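For reproducibility, we list the full input for the iron/sulfur cluster complex.
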Amino acid sequence: MSGFRLTWVSTVFLLRLFVVLMDDSFRDEGECQKRQIPVSVFVHDPEHPAHEDLVWLAKETCRECPVQAECFLFGMKNGEVGVWGGAWLELPPETSTDKP
Ligand code: SF4
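The corresponding predicted structure, in tokenized form, follows.
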């Protein structure tokens, strides 16, 4: 019986965790929305010629943002790339499964 309760509680916990991780409603309160800064400032190819300037502008915007923590956590948990919550996030380098 307790095994059933544990499974049920675990399922509810996982569903709530999934909803929290996928909830991006914080963006509506973001400084980037308020200033209407294009997404391309926050998410772009690191090889872009203006990469350093774009990241600087993005981070300056995030510094004033009331939902910086939520944004950073969302970016980290969902494997996003670009500036999220004031930090440049990128995918980890692929680990090769090829053996030499
Ligand atoms: S932390 Fe930065 S990217 Fe995230 S919502 Fe705020 S201004 Fe936008």
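Residues 24-100 form one domain. DSSP finds five helices and two strands in the chain. Both points were considered when choosing residues for closer inspection.
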